[in-house]
Amino acid sequence: MTTATATANSDRPTIGEFFLRAPAVGPALALVVAVLVFSFSTDTFLNLDNISLVVQQSLVIGTLALGQTLIILTAGIDLANAASMVLATLIMAKLLAGGVTGIFALLLGIVATVLVSGVVGTLVTKVKLPPFIVTLGALTMLTAAGRLFAGGEAVPVADGLLNWLGTRRYLFGGIEITYGMTLALVMYLVMWYALTRTAWGKHVYAVGNAPESARLSGIKVNRTVLSVYLVAGVIFGIAAWQALGRVPNADPNAYQLGNLDSITAVVLGGTSLFGGRGSVLGTMMGALIVAVLRSGLTQLGVDALYQDVATGALVIAAVAVDRFARRQR
Amino acid sequence: MRKILTAGLAAAVLVSAGGCTVERHWGGNTGSGGGGGKAKVGLVTKTDTNPYFVELRAAASAAAQANGADFSALAGQFDGDNDGQVRAIENLMQQGATTILITPSSSTGVLDAIDRARKAGVLVIALDTATEPAEAVDATFATDNFVAGQQQGAYVKAALGGAAPKLFMVDGTAGSTVDTQRHTGFLSGIGLADGAPEIKGSTPANGDQSTAQQGVENLLQRTTDINAVYTMNEPMGRGTYAALKARGLTGQVVMGSIDGGCEGVQNVRDGQYAATVMQFPKKMAEQGVLAAVEYAKSGKKPTGFNNTGSVVITDKPMPGVESQTTEWGLQNCWGDK
Q1: Where are the transmembrane segments (chain A) (predicted)?
Q2: Which of B16, B85, B178, B203 is the best residue to mutate to test the A interface, defined by the most A CB atoms within 10 Å of its own CB?
Q3: For chain A, N or C: smaller number of CB within 10 Å?
Q4: Contact B126, B102 (CB under 8 A)
Q5: Which residues pair with B41 in a beta bridge?
Q6: How far apart are CA B182 and CA B279, in angstroms?
């Protein structure tokens, strides 16, 4: 949760410093406010079923956003993550339809997203191409590849393992949870630990913050950035698994806005698009804020297009806060 | 800082909530199942910007109001947004809908969510697009798209007056159910098989006018020796017309389309294409809402596929093909007037 850029030389930090040190605090507060607003303004928002639903609705984008956070922390961006995920769902579905067992279909789908991210990472680190351009090209290619591969058709997926993350269980008190929720929580905690408590995590922040300084201090910048893309590739593969748990149907036309939605979650979570600052816990809040807004505003009867207006305004506000906090340093 | 953020959020929420509820909204607690109650009808369309779905939503809203039912409308963000439709179904269930009317984005994408809704006692009716399998919903109120395609094909065949067809096919989104049904229906109506040499070229255009124009422009680079064009919907018909007109071919080509929106009927009247096949979204919406009201009252559920009909609209009627004039069409476009 803390960042490598935090300064600690004054007794009482300014507000800006406080936010730089704990970037997940702002999003957490925004989330609490949103939940409170909707709890008081509707009589259907605040109940266990709905809270569970909101979390389930944020899972796929939340998982994509986890990988996106890693990449953005290195001052990169991934416009192709959702397309890569959709291709993986199609690969899993087609393999399954072809008689391959669920576990192999799942693994090969994940291998596909890792390969895609590996190629992107190599182009970014070795050929020094801007991530925006590389992933823009990859987005176009992967979208077309998905449609070609599936012959333009959606493929239903009925397999215990591939649908497993959408399986619902009921805990004491009738609380509905899915395995997907559990897995997402575990992934976020593991990644939080890796980023804040390991040398690798510190390197990720360092290369995003000041690559040249990182290089001079002995960090292998290229290797670190490439490792981030590979880890993100695994996460995008798991996002494909999450997607098949949520909608057991691989559709080449699905998640057309998934890349932008994942960036929205990351930005709302307080991670800086300029790299080096932010946290995965903030991203978790960001993904939940979007889902809470959608659910709450829907229950208030607000048109979806106005929901987009509200979400877009929040994104701009979040970046403005980021800028403001930096200036306060 | 916190104040800025929280105030910003609160303002965004309030501004959004203030001026923009498009549909009457219901409150109250959940309560599902039919029998002796007030109908709470939720509509889930593919998108909420396409004029066809805007029409469907307006008709459903009006029918709900006329029949004393509560009404709420949600939609996916784009064609193919299964996740968005699942979210919409969940939110409607959360709000206690007794009936969900849905135009499924993909005929298989939302079946799991529909199944959950039905198990919770919600009546689910597909509008416009059938699910696969059809029994995944309680009933379907829709155009028989195969028949609509067949009507277009039969008209084009008759209008060719015995000449062998030299055909371009401007398709929708490859693989979508409606696209496939209209495509095969048209070929059946004109009497050709897929891949027949009479088909001089085909292009998918995703239902989009400019994509269709570009696609047909490209096909015309290959050959201009055509006399018939199938278009899967009217925006693509307009794009196709622009491409044909630029090559001076409009006089020698019989073009048909499907939809029956007022703009499409006007296109036929203006001679842009020879005929369109009108469908009746208003009927789908009204029949869906009436079924919902009946279900809430008596617990009686509709079943099976209910064809809401399709009619050829043209000012050049052909023997053997039943049709209506554009004057009738303009009075009845999408069953609205």
Answers
A1: 18-40, 60-83, 95-120, 132-150, 170-195, 226-244, 265-293
A2: B16
A3: C
A4: yes
A5: B71, B99
A6: 12
Query: Is B203 at the interface with chain A, CB within 8 A?
Result: no
Backbone phi, psi, residue A52, to 5°:
-60, -45
Q: Positive or negative, the Cα torsion across A265, A268, A272, A278?
A: negative
Write the residue in B6, B20, B80 that is nearest to A251 by C-beta: B80
| Rounded-to-integer distance, Cα B281 and Cα B304, Å | 18
SS (H, E, C) B196-256: CCCEEEEEECCCCHHHHHHHHHHHHHHCCCCCEEEECCHHHHHHHHHHHHHCCCHHHCEEE
CA distance B31 to A256: 35
Report which secondary-structure segment, H or E, holds A325. helix A304-328
AA identity, residue A176: E
ipTM of the complex, rounded to two decimals = 0.74
Q: Terminal CA-to-CA distance of chain A, rounded, Å?
A: 18
**Domain segments of chain A as ranges:** 50-328
Beta bridge partner(s), residue B254: B228
The three-point CA angle A256-A258-A260 to 5° equals 105
Here the tokens at position B132 are: 């696969």
Q: Which residue has the tokens 């229950």?
A: A299
| pTM, full prediction | 0.80
Q: Are strands B40-45 and A168-171 parallel, antiparallel or unpaired?
A: unpaired
A residues 247-276 lying closer than 8 A (beta carbon) to B = 247-249, 251-257
pLDDT tens per residue, chain B (337 residues)?
Answer: 445 544 554 544 444 443 333 343 454 334 444 456 899 999 999 988 778 898 999 999 999 999 999 999 999 888 889 999 999 999 999 989 999 999 998 778 899 999 999 999 999 999 998 888 889 999 999 999 999 999 999 999 999 999 999 999 999 887 777 889 999 999 999 999 999 999 999 998 888 888 899 889 989 988 999 999 999 999 899 999 999 998 899 999 999 999 999 999 999 999 999 999 999 999 999 999 999 999 999 999 999 999 999 999 999 999 999 999 999 999 998 876 5
Cβ-Cβ contacts under 8 Å, B82 against chain A: 154, 247, 249, 251, 254
Single-letter amino acid code for the residue at A194: A
B79 vs A contacts (CB less than 8 Å):
253
Taking CB atoms within 8 Å and a gap of at least 24, the contacts of A193-196 are A195/A73, A195/A279, A195/A280, A196/A1, A196/A2, A196/A279
Across the interface, of B12, B90, B113, the residue whose CB is closest to A313 is B12
Pairing of strands B139-142, B123-127: parallel
Question: Position A250: which residue type?
Answer: A
Strand ranges inside chain A, DSSP E: 155-156, 168-171, 175-178, 249-250
**Chains A, B: CB contacts under 8 A, how many?**
168
Question: Phi and psi of A8, rounded to 5°?
Answer: -135, 30
Q: Are B100 and B119 in contact (CB under 8 A)?
A: no
Q: Which helix (H) or strand (E) covers residue B282, if one does?
A: helix B281-298
Task: Write the DSSP symbol of residue B164.
Answer: P
